[in-house]
Automatic annotation (TrEMBL):
Pfam families: cNMP_binding (PF00027), STAS (PF01740), Sulfate_transp (PF00916). SUPFAM superfamilies: cAMP-binding domain-like, SpoIIaa-like. The keyword Transmembrane helix applies. This is Cyclic nucleotide-binding domain-containing protein. It comes from the Bacteria. Residues 598-691 form the Cyclic nucleotide-binding domain. The chain crosses the membrane at residues 15-48, 60-80, 86-109, 121-139, 159-181, 193-213, 248-270, 324-343, 381-414. The keyword Magnesium does not apply. It comes from Azospirillum melinis. Its main location: membrane.
């Protein structure tokens, strides 16, 4: 049953497609055109059925690509107006077969290289514009079939002839009837029945009007070809010998556009079948099998095609699960070949023109009118622009316009995405280094001289400019440039973190060269954090050398970049009393304020002298003491599953470490390793318990030190959470 339905549908479409291609000055090739179209349809149905990964696939000759070729063939025929009829017809078959060969080759190559997924990234508005534009070309083709003249203006002028006007009115009426019937009925027999009824009504009406078949043929109501029982095909040697290959070469852009549009159509249909039937289909395998079928069809001079979405879904609904659906379709089409000549001679022109007009109106309705509800206004305007360009200029021009506008819209939309992930001054964003209270106080006051900027995404000419503005504003606020606020703190370090950058083009690298010059004029330093290799290469190509340029400095990550800038600011304030060599008593006074018992608190602590790489705290141990760093540095780290160590924090003079596990009675959660020669003061749990019994006032001082440390760490943790949430 599905073979009968699809076969009859192919026969009707084949007649209409051939009539669309071989009209006017090419009308003598209509018989061979019908034969080659139907033979190609049979080959496509047969080979796709045998080789498709979707067993019940039903392949069809697709009219969207034929619409483009009809316009191309008409242009060719107009250019060869003075050439012999055989040359024009042979050139038309060469263009038709050449287009199918290009399509088959493209399908097979893309499938062989497994690039089917890449084609799905083609801009959707452009695809919709192509399909809607193909609908317009079908409408123009229907007008040319009726009037015998190509071009919208010439076709409309041809309607002045009474008999042509009658044919046009009948075609419009049939198209309107098909639209109405197909909207109201989902039966696969609906369209064939309408077409069959219209044809029978036409032939029944001729005797009633006293019109003979010869008169109807003379008036253009029937094709101007003699009937026959068999079918004819173009002779390959004649096509090779007679075709104007210069005209064929000129049609190559249209052939490529047909191939690309066909590939998009195939992949869209495959996606639809996947969704409807709930199974994955290997798109690359479908491209290869369909490509082979099109190569064979193209060698015979026929049109291209691929799996039909509607017929394949109908086969599934009717219970056809195996390859019999496609095989039966091919058998019905081959059977129809033997009466193709007779079918051509008795099929009214209004019937084929009305069917082509219906197909064109359906494409315009779905991809232009209904797309207005599905698409945002800007994307729908792209669809409209493509259709207008195809109608007014040409198909390739419409293709170029659609791609250019889509690219421009993409660049514009992407350029509006924020590339600055976060901006913080050094007063609010700190490195993971616990410092003495005096050093922390100094960084709170002087940290505004550090500006950290995290960037994200892909930097190109449309987005990189977003970085220049904030840098210039920051410098102007510091009074570096004319008109700025001279009271603002000057910028000393600009950190740009590239951790979330995916790539960069040369134009964006040029923007960073401008930023580098601004930083140099300000007497500041540009710190490049987490610089990817690709970005570094782009920098070097535009003349920026992170290793030799005195204005530039690199850092492995944002934390180390902040740490190096903080160290530089602290080194300039060596007399603040908060340095690494400051006595422990001074650190405690800066932490809690003056207290008469602080000296006793220091005396209650044990003193340890440790060398680099010695372990102060080991993960998993029971917490029995807390440490205050008097001099040197230690690092808190955890062991990763692969054996590497990850640094969590660095602790410097005045920092307290280990108090959380001690107060909560937990085991140690991380290792603490000495980085530089260090003097460390230890408060044991036993000492603290003894002082709570014997000297509560001194124990309270020690608890106050621990509480102050915990409060500072909670404040820092909250700040980091706020920054991460921005």
């Amino acid at each position: 049953m599905i073979g009968l339905i699809a076969g009859i549908d192919n026969l009707g479409n084949g007649l209409a497609i051939a009539a669309l291609l071989f009209t006017g000055p090419l009308a003598a090739g209509l018989g061979a055109g019908v034969g080659v179209v139907l033979l190609s349809a049979a080959i496509l149905a047969l080979l796709v059925a045998l080789r498709s990964t979707q067993p019940n696939s039903v392949a069809l000759v697709q009219e969207t690509g034929v619409a483009i070729l009809a316009s191309t063939v008409a242009t060719m025929a107009a250019g060869l107006e003075g050439a012999p009829e055989g040359v024009r017809i042979a050139t038309a078959f060469a263009i038709l077969g050449g287009s199918t060969l290009v399509t088959g080759l493209l399908f097979w190559m893309v499938g062989r290289l497994r690039l089917g997924r890449l084609v799905r990234f083609f801009p959707y508005p452009v695809v919709a514009g192509f399909l809607a534009g193909s609908g317009w070309l079908l409408v123009e083709g229907a007008l040319a079939m009726v009037s015998g003249r190509h071009g919208l203006g010439a076709g409309i002028a041809g309607l002045a002839a009474p008999m042509v006007a009658v044919t046009a009115a009948a075609a419009v009426g049939l198209a309107g009837l098909l639209v109405l019937v197909m909207r109201r009925s989902a039966s696969p027999f609906a369209m064939p029945l309408v077409l069959l009824t219209a044809a029978l009504a036409f032939h029944a009406g001729l005797p009633l009007l006293g019109v003979t078949a010869e008169q109807a043929r003379g008036w253009g109501w029937l094709p101007g070809v003699a009937g026959g029982d068999g079918f004819s095909l173009p002779v390959p040697t004649e096509v090779l010998a007679l075709a104007d290959w210069g005209r064929v070469a000129a049609a190559l852009p249209a052939m490529v556009s047909v191939a690309v549009l066909g590939m998009l159509g195939l992949l869209l249909n495959v996606s639809g079948i996947e969704l409807a039937q709930g199974r994955d289909i290997d798109a690359d395998a479908e491209l290869r099998s369909t490509g082979a079928a099109n190569l064979l069809a193209g060698a015979l001079g026929g049109p291209s095609g691929y799996v039909g979405l509607g017929m394949t879904l109908l086969a599934g609904r009717m219970g056809a699960r195996g390859r019999g659906a496609g095989l039966a379709t091919a058998a019905v089409i081959l059977g129809g070949l033997f009466v193709a000549g007779w079918l051509v001679s008795v099929t009214p022109v209004f019937l084929t023109a009305g069917l082509i007009l219906f197909l064109g109106v359906e494409l315009l309705q779905e991809w232009l009118i209904e797309a207005r509800r599905r698409l945002p206004r800007t994307e729908w305007l792209i669809v409209l622009a493509v259709v207008l360009a195809i109608a007014g200029i040409g198909f390739m021009e419409g293709l170029a316009l659609g791609l250019a506008v889509s690219l421009a819209m993409f660049v514009y939309s992407y350029s509006r995405l924020p590339v600055i992930r976060g901006r913080h001054s050094g007063a609010e964003l700190r490195s993971r280094v616990d410092r003495s209270p005096a050093a922390s106080l100094h960084l709170t006051a002087a940290g505004a001289a550090i500006e950290a900027m995290q960037v994200q995404g892909y930097l190109f000419f449309g987005t990189a400019e977003q970085i220049v503005g904030p840098v210039r504003d920051r410098l102007e606020r510091a009074g570096v440039q004319a008109g700025g606020d001279a009271g603002a703190q000057p910028l000393r370090f600009l950190i740009i973190d590239f951790r979330h950058i995916k790539g960069m083009d040369s134009a964006a690298a040029g923007v960073f060269r401008r930023i580098r010059n601004l930083i140099e004029a300000a007497g500041a330093t540009l710190v490049l954090s987490a610089l990817p290799d690709a970005v570094e290469d782009a920098f070097r190509n535009c003349g920026l050398d992170p290793d030799r340029d005195p204005v530039l400095r690199r850092a492995p990550d944002l934390d180390h970049a902040l740490e190096s800038c903080e160290e530089a600011l602290l080194a300039e304030d060596g007399g603040s009393g908060g340095g690494a060599d400051a006595p422990l008593l001074r650190h405690l006074e800066a932490m809690t304020g003056p207290h008469p018992r602080l000296a006793d608190a220091v005396a209650a602590l044990d003193t340890l002298h440790l060398e680099p790489d010695e372990v102060l705290i080991r993960a998993g141990e029971t917490a029995s003491d807390v440490f205050i760093i008097g001099r040197g540095r230690v690092k808190v780290q955890i062991a990763l599953p692969d054996g590497r160590s990850l640094r969590l924090r660095t602790m410097t003079a005045g920092a307290v470490v280990g108090e959380i596990a001690l107060l909560l009675g937990q085991t140690r959660g991380a290792d603490v390793v000495v980085e530089t020669t260090a003097t460390i003061h230890r408060l044991t749990a036993a000492t603290l318990a003894r002082l709570e019994r014997e000297d509560p006032e001194l124990a309270l001082v020690l608890h106050r030190i621990l509480a102050t440390t915990l409060a500072q760490k909670v404040t820092l943790a909250n700040r980091l959470i706020e920054q991460a949430a921005v």
